Amino acid sequence: MDESMILARGLRKSFGDFEAVRGIDVDVRRGEAFGFLGPNGAGKSSTMRMVAAVSPVSGGELRILGLDPAVDGPSIRARIGVCPQEDTLDTELTVRDNLYVYGRYFGLPRKEVRERVEELLEFVQLTEKSGAMVEDLSGGMKRRLTIARSLINRPDVLLLDEPTTGLDPQARHVVWDRLFRLKQQGVTLVLTTHYMDEAEQLCDRLVVMDKGLIVAEGSPLELIGAHSTREVAELRFGVGEHEALAEKVADLGDRVEVLPDRLLVYSDDGEEVIARVHERGLQPVAVLVRRSTLEDVFLRLTGRTLVD
């Protein structure tokens, strides 16, 4: 677990005068699931492309599997798997042939590829669909096939860019289960995701990026403990009342956030907050007490403003 699979120090990526990644330090250890979180434009994709050894480093140091991508790119790419955000499957081939042809790209012997294809079809639960054309698959099946394809070369590191975007909850949980099994087998996972529950489910550690910098790092629980409270009380009042009422409940928690449709009171005891709100004669239209989540941390660190 102490061996570094990806080690970056002062890593930078520039496009002309624009610096997308502004000097970050990352250390991904063997066998862990490591996540990159951040809004659009935070630098996640630029970082992942450098880690995949397909985009040159503009500054700093980067070692992948102990190798320098500037000189060892082919050797690195032979030992990693990449699952892109968009499925890039060959729609004119069957499920089985998509895997077989991709395996041959790696120069694997025919017999080995055939055996590997059958293993992966079973692993991603697509054996019964092996003869089907890709265009006949559901979104979840296509995603599982893309993951299977990225595993054809038995990679030491698997890079996943938004692995479950666009999937329904059932399909997402199937993908989560497959990824968890890979981690149990010793595969190092590096992923980007916009789903905070996905990050909480899958990641041992993660970094939150914003404007090309890392603004927080730790396990999901460590981040919640450092940047939020144990619970959040949500108070809904009438339309347009929340700004004025925020001052009346400001002392009930560590902080109060005003949203257009509700107040969020961050506290270690949400039920106590609700009781004291009623003691003060305030009558919310609706109340909810929930535990703090990684989403609370993410929004506090990166803001709620929409980034295009």
From TrEMBL:
<keyword id="KW-0067">ATP-binding</keyword>
<dbReference type="InterPro" id="IPR027417">
    <property type="entry name" value="P-loop_NTPase"/>
</dbReference>
<comment type="similarity">
    <text>Belongs to the ABC transporter superfamily.</text>
</comment>
<protein>
    <submittedName>
        <fullName>Lipooligosaccharide transport system ATP-binding protein</fullName>
    </submittedName>
</protein>
<keyword id="KW-0813">Transport</keyword>
<keyword id="KW-0472">Membrane</keyword>
<dbReference type="Pfam" id="PF00005">
    <property type="entry name" value="ABC_tran"/>
</dbReference>
<keyword id="KW-0547">Nucleotide-binding</keyword>
<dbReference type="InterPro" id="IPR003439">
    <property type="entry name" value="ABC_transporter-like_ATP-bd"/>
</dbReference>
<dbReference type="InterPro" id="IPR050763">
    <property type="entry name" value="ABC_transporter_ATP-binding"/>
</dbReference>
<keyword id="KW-1278">Translocase</keyword>
<dbReference type="InterPro" id="IPR003593">
    <property type="entry name" value="AAA+_ATPase"/>
</dbReference>
<dbReference type="GO" id="GO:0046677">
    <property type="term" value="P:response to antibiotic"/>
</dbReference>
<dbReference type="GO" id="GO:0016887">
    <property type="term" value="F:ATP hydrolysis activity"/>
</dbReference>
<dbReference type="InterPro" id="IPR017871">
    <property type="entry name" value="ABC_transporter-like_CS"/>
</dbReference>
<dbReference type="GO" id="GO:0005886">
    <property type="term" value="C:plasma membrane"/>
</dbReference>
<dbReference type="GO" id="GO:0005524">
    <property type="term" value="F:ATP binding"/>
</dbReference>
<feature type="domain" description="ABC transporter">
    <location>
        <begin position="6"/>
        <end position="236"/>
    </location>
</feature>
<keyword id="KW-1003">Cell membrane</keyword>
<keyword id="KW-0046">Antibiotic resistance</keyword>
